[in-house]
User: Fold this.
Amino acid sequence: MGALVGAAYVADRLTPLREWAEAVSWREIAGLLDVRLRGGGLIDGGQIAAFLRTLGIAAPIESYKKTFAAIATDLKTGREIWLQTGPIDQAVRASISLPGIIRPAEHDGQWLLDGGLVNPVPVSTCRALGADIIIAVNVNGELLARRFDKTPRKRSDEKPKRLPNEFFSQIVTQMPEGMKQQIALIAPRLLQPEARAPGYVQVIATAINIMQDQITRTRLAGEPPHVLLVPRMGNVGLLEFNRAKEAIAEGRACVDRALPTIREYL
Assistant:
């Protein structure tokens, strides 16, 4: 998500992205999840790249005035890859290849995974690219502490959120005929936690969060930014894109809390 938002920023398309996120329906979200159940992930990822192109985020990275790099991980070597040239939508596509969820992206003969596997908060990249002041954002800061909390913080008028049937229907329609009946029965169970056990997606997402949290702590200790923002995102799940307004509001609140420090540098 950092790569996607960063790409929107350098392409001057943050406003269209925000407007889409604040108005998106579950039907539209499901349309981006091109389930294939092959190639190393549940989701192919092609529709995500196509979505970026519809927003006008697709030019070569080197054509933009602002400096940009997306972080990915080489599946073969485990090395950190900085994507600084070529179509920006393809760089974002490679950077969001969550293991087990979105299939790896092929790029210049390499299979690439999510950059968060090696550098979740890439302060080192910003410094290498010439940044004078680095304001970093760690969205994993509160995820682990509250992900399995039995009494998570909720507004008094907030109802438990469940994915609507249209979400599952969209997923099932994209599968081979021989699999539809079986998948229709198990898809809700894969995506929703049961009363006594976490669901499939929740397990993968939390496992990745655990790994990223440990890597982030280690790397930030050796490569600290000037300002570190840690928005309180523990109540927002992996697929809850429909809660963008809440996330944006928390982002603004987080910046407000850090303004005295930010002003010291800017």
Notes: The longest helix spans residues 200-222. The first strand starts at residue 35 and ends at 38. The radius of gyration is 19 Å.
